[in-house]
Amino acid sequence: MLKTSAALLSAAMLAGCVVAPQPYAPVYSAPGYVAVAPPAPRVEYVGVAPAPGYFWIAGSWGWGGARYVWRPGHWQAPRPGYRWVPQRWQRDGDHWREQRGYWSPERRREERRDDRRDR
Questions:
Q1: What is the per-residue pLDDT across 30-43, written as a single tens digit (0 to 9) for each?
Q2: How confident is the model at residue 57, as a pLDDT?
Q3: CA 77 – CA 72 distance, rounded (Å)
Q4: Residue 70 bridge partners (DSSP)
Q5: Under a CB-based contact definition with an 8 Å cutoff, are residues 63 and 3 in contact?
Q6: Which residues of the chain have pLDDT under 50?
C-alpha cells in the first residue's frame, strides 16, 4: 500500500512538470538579419605568435541559427598583397547584420594618391 501511494504521488508530481520552449530566442527576421544585438566581445589571451610576421585575428560572435556562438581568435600568416578586414556587426533598422572578416586586396600607394587627386 505504501509503495502504491508513493508511486501515485510521484506520478502526480511529474504530471505537473511542464517543459516549455525558451520564451524568447533571437531569430532571423529575414535572411542574414538577427533581431537581437550581439553580446560584447570576449577577452582573449593572445599569447605569442607561432612565427615571425604572424598577426592576431580577434575572436568574434557569429550567428549559430538560434543563438550567438563565439568564434575564438587565432594567429594568421600574412598574405602578401592583401590586408585583413575584421568581422563586424552592423545595425540595420531594428535588426543586426553580420559582415564577416575577409582578405581585401591591398591598394598600392600610387592608386590611393590618384584617387585623392580625382576628388
A1: 557 899 999 999 99
A2: 96
A3: 16
A4: 61
A5: no
A6: 17-29
